[in-house]
Every structure is written in C-alpha cells, then in structure tokens.
Write a structure and sequence with these properties.
The chain is mainly β. It has two helices and eight strands. This is Class F sortase.
Length: 201
Amino acid sequence: MNPLSRRAFATAALGTLLVGCGGRPAGQDPRTDAPSTPPAGRRPPKSASASGGSAPVRLRIPAIGVDTPVMRLGLAPDGSVEVPPITAHDQAGWYEHSPTPGTTGPSVILGHVTVGPYGDGVFRNLSALRRGQRVVARLENGEAAVFAVSSVRTVAKADFPSDEVYGDVGGPELRLITCGGTRTGDGYADNVIVFAALSRP
C-alpha cells in the first residue's frame, strides 16, 4: 500500500479503533463511544499485501499470559474498522485488510482492555510489555510468525500516530492496539500501541 492510501486508511479508521473498550455487551453498538466517525463515503483501502501469506488464527504473548484465538475483522457498514464483540469469551481480532503476519508491512491486531460487565479484556496487560518480549502469531497453515517487541506507546486518541502505525515498512511488522489511559464513562482517553518486528518466521 502506498503512503497516500495508508494515510487515507488511518484517517478513516483511527477514530473508531477499539472504541468499544469497556463498552457494551454484544448486541449493542460499541462504536457509539467513538470520538469521531469516518468521512462519508470514505472506506479504508485494502493493503496490497493482505492477500499474501496465511491468516492468523491464534496469538500468544507469554510475558503477559495472553493465549487467544484470533478472529477476522473487516469493515462495518459505516466504513469503520470492526472491533471484536463485547462478550464473556473475549478474543483478539486481525484486521483482514492489513498484511498477514510474517509478510511485509504492518499487520494490525486489535483487542479490548475491558469488556463491559464481563471484566478484563484479552489485552488488559498490553501496556506491561517490554522491548524484546515475544509475540507469536499462529497461522492457518500451521506455521508461526514470531515477533519481538520493539516499543510500547500510550498516546492520546486525538494524537494517534497514523503514519507510524500504518506507514510503509521494509519488513514484516506487527501492531497490537487496545485502549488505555483514563477511563471516562464507557470509553478511554488513550490508545496503547505495541510495535513489534519479525524475529523469525
């Protein structure tokens, strides 16, 4: 994906990423907490490398005790990126129009920090990750892509670093995103973003 299309994706999508964190049970719209909505008619473009590789089906982060199935996430009817449903059996979700883990580009996996009345979300301890710790994406073809954390950032949603998250990179990378910071009503003020690079296929 070229830089212009990545910026278009970020502009359309970042306002609705993980707005359901701490939100409502399944069956209620988790996007009502969104600080903004995508412009009319704007939809995140598909990544050129999204069709390559094998989709992730499980994610393990040993340092924080995460071992979760990974569901596919697409686009909601309004053109925003879907988020995992608010359910008792919370799991992470891979945005299927981002590169598959292990292929060139930033693969995007989303998860909740809290899931409404059900308590903690699958990414509740994401901010505790440290540089060098492993993230393992198990793929549909039975292989695994192993990543090493390069940095963890907590940023205000209004200052989401779109180019750093979605911009072109020279190799396979991973972005894990959840909510963080101060909780206000049903939402959170910040996003926690983990940046990781492939350490071995």
